[in-house]
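Appendix C reproduces, verbatim, an entry submitted by the partner laboratory led by Prof. M.T., so that reviewers can inspect both the input and the predicted structure.
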Amino acid sequence: CKTNLDCSAAVDNSVCSNKSCDCSGGYHVSSGNTSCNLRKIGDQTCTLSTDCSLAIGNSTCMNHTCSCLSGFYSTNLNQTCTLRKVGDSNCNVNSDCASAVQNSKCLNQTCACEGGFQVSSDNTSCILRKIGDETCTEVTDCSLAVANSTCINSTCTCLSGYRITNQNTTCTLR
């Protein structure tokens, strides 16, 4: 070949490179060498990160396999990588969640906020709890965020003998 048109006229998504037809970035040669197919997560034909990232945003090539970046997971029939949120399942390690949402972890294969934090209304962040928050279920939900606090009737409250200070972020001895 001499020009890209020499290749693309015969095979869609191909280019002329060093006088030879190759698949365009983000594509790989089909098993029969007759077409160029868009890469997907799980394809085991990449050598460079751009082999994957040109086809799928937020992906990379790891061990010759297209994979989503840490904090993302495969969706849309392995054609997209979606940013994780609190509540998303299929995580395996804490970094699967923490790379996407600060102060989160993988708990029972589901992204969850760390102790002392509560999930935002859109599930995209973990917010440090304050005195008066009405979402606690156990003492550590509050005590890990605010020293000398507890959870009473689903509400973070200062322990007896302590008062609320610093915009509901501290329990100070009376």
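The chain has a mean pLDDT of 95. Additional entries are available on request from the coordinating office.
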